[in-house]
């Protein structure tokens, strides 16, 4: 294995995981965390990820990391992906790694690459003003053979580089374009609505080969999911794995973990949504760790290391098709504009599938607008053996008002 890993971003779970590996590491993050790091003997380099320069700044950071004998960098959050690409291109003397990292940070570039690779994607375009969005809707309506009086084709507006659903807007009509779109949204990506069941995959890749593949079932995007996916998706696993390997090959992914989102239609066709190469949201890696019995963050660190051997990874990873225990999570967000207290139903705590929750009693305050699918007020975790029961619980408690 390589001498030292640079963890880009502050994450206590990641720090705990790498320390259990007994592997040299250094955390690179904002100066806000430096005092805590010093107090707890955490190797630390202060860095402002907000000031990006693909040449000068990355060289300065690489120079700072020489003292730690860093062999490779792992991005923990969306904002650190291009920094990891820059550092790894320097450390491995491979400029293409820098360019490849942009595929994960520019959704328009990502879609073009997927299209060239032969992956099924929707119609998409880059737009710079509302007039161009109207023109895009015109082309979609025309392609859908829309008749007068019929609904407009749905459009998804997405920032080029935001994580997950931050800034994502669903535009169902021309009035939505006028009412929801603001100047700061531009430039951005617009794309057609993809039909089908949305799900994600978490694949750990080493030397271009998928070493472990999990399929995560989304119950409600941004709120609830469980691991592994139920039988409906699992029976499509061969086709999903084939599409995943095609994604890995076409994007030139050699090491680390990828988290793509797909859509499966009723006709068993797979459409590519988007892909990330950092820790996914929704507590997915935590659920993976629980269901399969290994540390998924350690897996990220090991699979990102070109020095890890195939034998070490074969010994580390369990069989990715044999677990019979499902773990789910529901992220809770207040439904009211003003809240004063937390109310957890007794029936939840007495349910055999209930594992724990991280909901906290609030002080009375006004609830702020939700950004993407972030800012949740805690998570409820479930564990059980029946995927249908897991789905029912996640759907039911999504409607419960925990904060009143």
UniProtKB/TrEMBL annotation:
The keyword Secreted does not apply. GO terms for molecular function: ATP binding; ligase activity; metal ion binding. Keywords: ATP-binding, Ligase, Nucleotide-binding. InterPro entries: ATP-dep_AA_Ligase, ATP-grasp. SUPFAM superfamilies: Glutathione synthetase ATP-binding domain-like. Gene3D superfamilies: ATP-grasp fold, B domain (3.30.470.20). Residues 111-305 form the ATP-grasp domain. It holds the Pfam family ATP-grasp_4. This is ATP-grasp domain-containing protein.
């Amino acid at each position: 294995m390589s001498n030292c890993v640079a963890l880009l971003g502050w994450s206590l779970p990641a720090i705990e995981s790498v320390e259990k590996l007994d592997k040299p590491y250094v955390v690179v993050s904002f100066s806000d965390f430096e005092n805590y790091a010093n107090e707890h003997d955490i190797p630390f380099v202060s860095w402002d990820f907000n000031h990006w320069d693909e040449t000068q700044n990355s060289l300065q950071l690489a120079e700072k990391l020489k003292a730690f004998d860093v062999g490779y960098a792992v991005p923990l959050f969306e904002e650190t992906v291009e920094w990891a690409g820059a550092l790894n291109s320097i450390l491995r003397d491979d400029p293409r790694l820098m360019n490849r990292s942009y595929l994960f940070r520019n959704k328009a570039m990502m879609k073009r690459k997927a299209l060239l690779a032969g992956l099924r994607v929707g119609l998409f375009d880059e737009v710079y003003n509302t007039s161009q969005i109207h023109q895009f809707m015109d082309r979609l309506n025309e392609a859908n053979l829309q008749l007068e009086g019929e609904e407009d084709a749905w459009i998804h507006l997405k920032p080029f580089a935001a994580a997950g659903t931050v800034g994502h807007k669903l535009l169902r009509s021309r009035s939505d374009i006028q009412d929801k779109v603001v100047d700061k949204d531009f430039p951005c990506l617009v794309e057609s609505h993809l039909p089908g069941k949305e799900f994600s995959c978490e694949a750990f890749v080493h030397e271009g080969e998928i070493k472990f593949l999990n399929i995560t079932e989304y119950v409600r995007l941004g709120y609830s999911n469980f691991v592994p996916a139920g039988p409906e998706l699992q029976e499509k696993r061969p086709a999903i794995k084939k599409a995943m390997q095609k994604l890995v090959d076409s994007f030139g992914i050699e090491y680390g973990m990828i988290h793509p989102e797909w859509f499966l239609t009723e006709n068993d066709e797979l459409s590519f949504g988007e892909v990330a190469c950092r820790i996914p949201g929704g507590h997915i890696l935590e659920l993976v760790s629980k269901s399969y019995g290994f540390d998924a963050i350690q897996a990220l660190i090991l699979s990102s290391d070109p020095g890890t051997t195939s034998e070490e990874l074969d010994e580390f990873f369990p069989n990715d098709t044999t677990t019979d225990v499902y773990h789910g999570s529901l992220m809770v967000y207040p439904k009211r504009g003003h809240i004063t207290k937390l109310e957890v139903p007794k029936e939840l705590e007495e349910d055999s599938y209930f594992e724990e929750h991280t909901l906290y009693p609030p002080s009375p305050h006004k609830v702020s607008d939700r950004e993407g699918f972030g800012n949740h007020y805690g998570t409820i975790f479930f564990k059980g053996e029946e995927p249908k029961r897991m789905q029912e619980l996640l759907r039911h408690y999504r409607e419960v008002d925990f904060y009143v």
